[in-house]
Amino acid sequence: MKPIQVGLLGFGTVGSGVAKVLARNAEEIGRRAGRAIEVKRVAVRNIVKARAVAPAAVVEGLAFGNDFHAVVDDPEISIICELIGGTTLAKELVLRAIANGKHVVTANKALLALHGNEIFAAAQARGVTVAFEAAVAGGIPIIKALREGLTANRIEWIAGIINGTSNFILTEMRDKGAAFADVLAEAQQLGYAEADPTFDIEGHDAAHKLTILSALAFGIPMQFDKAYLEGISRLTQEDIAYAEQLGYRIKLLGITRRKANGVELRVHPTLIPAKRIIANVDGVMNAVVVQGDAVGQTLYCGRGAGSEPTASAVVADLVDVTRLLTADPEHRVPHLAFQPDRLVDLPILPIDAVETSYYLRLKAHDKAGVMADVTRILADADISIDAMMQKEPAEGVKVVDIIILTHIALERRVDEAIARIEGLATIAGSVTKLRLENLDK
Amino acid sequence: MKPIQVGLLGFGTVGSGVAKVLARNAEEIGRRAGRAIEVKRVAVRNIVKARAVAPAAVVEGLAFGNDFHAVVDDPEISIICELIGGTTLAKELVLRAIANGKHVVTANKALLALHGNEIFAAAQARGVTVAFEAAVAGGIPIIKALREGLTANRIEWIAGIINGTSNFILTEMRDKGAAFADVLAEAQQLGYAEADPTFDIEGHDAAHKLTILSALAFGIPMQFDKAYLEGISRLTQEDIAYAEQLGYRIKLLGITRRKANGVELRVHPTLIPAKRIIANVDGVMNAVVVQGDAVGQTLYCGRGAGSEPTASAVVADLVDVTRLLTADPEHRVPHLAFQPDRLVDLPILPIDAVETSYYLRLKAHDKAGVMADVTRILADADISIDAMMQKEPAEGVKVVDIIILTHIALERRVDEAIARIEGLATIAGSVTKLRLENLDK
Predict the structure, then answer these.
(1) Is A301 in Cβ contact with B271 (below 8 Å)?
(2) Which CATH superfamily is domain A145-305 in?
(3) pLDDT tens digits, residue range B154-207?
């Protein structure tokens, strides 16, 4: 089947990420979508600058041009990916793509919060889809969760950390006891905050996203102009410290809640109990909590910004539309995520071929030499030790607990080493083995 | 449009939950699905027992019967909801429903882990869908996230707390320092563990779910027989305590990871760094972490079992199929989750009509009577105090910080009270007001 042709509008952080992910994961994405997805044309303001954003291998196959309208009018293109931002040219191009009968994928929260009602009505009338998973919380599939995953529920409220810049600043203020202005300067240096940070730190960006979530949760039109905004720039170190002493953390939350007489729609610094999971979502991470009457609370957490996390959501939308244009409706989404004729036969590894870290607990007779024996056995088996703890035995007890954490090792070697350790005369009984995962990659 | 007719097989915890949620949220669900969803028939083994499970208002409109096959053969029924569990009769009925051209929604992880390959092939050949969001992690839409939300990614690994019973037991062992056997007995009393708990505590249930997640992540057939299982029954209090001292928590994790030579598929107690969010998912909650190459880590957390959380996922699948049978493919999922002609005009409330709790910081001249004045003003405004903290001033400083946390109050009243407090001669400067959310309902 002929590949789906995509037109990219914009090739900055997100646009180049989309091209990278589509190139790197082409095979995997094709197995899922049932069809290849190809970027036919890219429209940018500055071609030289755009070409410098991504590696040569990604850029060389792409047809760059300056004419945004020509891409939107190209009859061979089925999906327009709007990634230029802003609400003027972006709006014009999105409406023109819709009028041309093309599906649209956009990451533009401002555009949707301000003009979504008009755009969706046009798409509805023209029989096309406007997909926007990337518009809220980057790579977290929260739009899909709300539109499809939680449809059984009467949604009661949503609360979210949906601006990574603010969350980074608040986390640093708390961790380092630093003042707002100092942390902002640091965030700007790290590229987490713009030169003009107003949009992020005064809650505008979060309010755009919250407006979209609120509409999806309650079935109401977008009403960004009614949102209440309060940023983090006035927060002081002393309030953060006092909140901490009282058992709370301060986060910039977007909150939308259904009440008998209407809907709350507000973004402001908020004290939350420190023991809540969302209170522990730090740095540039985003998280959204949804309260539904049947499911209770569900929480979604991940990177809310950045090149590839945002591209992850854009490409998921591209796959969604591709599946729609490719398969029978009842087989749009394959049962096992990949097309049934494209499953692979990767073997399941036996447990002794697993590589991970280990926790070992030994009971040793408190005799000189036992540690030397044990560490020699581990060294012989190429198992390196990350940490070791010895618990002094209680008065009169002859057996001491030794706990060893290993670095990553092959389970078969660990088992062999354990057998040798258990054979030592200085070791009592059997060794307790538990697996340990750092989950950091 | 005529309502979609559903046949329910089974009316236990989950089946009755589905009936309750469909009844309670009929209006909201219809606005989302574009069509009403109606339970036409319910097949159960014991009608008297089944009728006693749900409130009279839910049960009275339902047609109960004993003949499972008759429901599956009913030509007016479009979707069969298999909620009887087990792998013998359930398998026969699901395959028969597929042969009859009906879509199937099931919560049966054992059935899919053991016979999914055969069932999905049959569905594919017959042109119907078998939906199974409820089979893994209850109300958390993790199947949808993997099949649709994360399609851009090469999935590297998944790690999940996907058995609530085990997580409850481990949480209690840690919090109370109690032995496994004692906590198991408590869990059985609370209804969190079965009389025969083997299935949950020895990892079978988690391995069924992990087998499904692994197939979805890597595009491989279901291979439950190759999964490695190790339960929590041998875990001792001392290992939990030692792990804690070393900065780790022990969780029963299901882990599946892609390696160069195959796929790891294993369920076992696992040490995880205590600062990881998933290490802090306690009690009966479930959580799944997915590592994708583009998005990085995303985490999904919520209730993994129970009547309505599981029903939430079953009904979401019913809505998915209903949308498929109702709308044009490109408008299957409405842009704003609800059908465009079924949006409502709930007003957005102004900020002074919001009700929440508040953090107030006052700077008071350290004079007798200031606390009495402030508390009287709050009492007059019907604002009750949850906590109060007074910071003794440093040597030579005349102004003392007073922090007040209020119970839930109307913002307008809080603002009025603040104006009165700021008018007191004993108060210096303006009052700092922050909002506080407990997020507990």
Answers:
(1) no
(2) Dihydrodipicolinate Reductase; domain 2 (3.30.360.10)
(3) 999 999 999 999 999 999 999 999 999 999 999 999 888 888 899 999 999 999
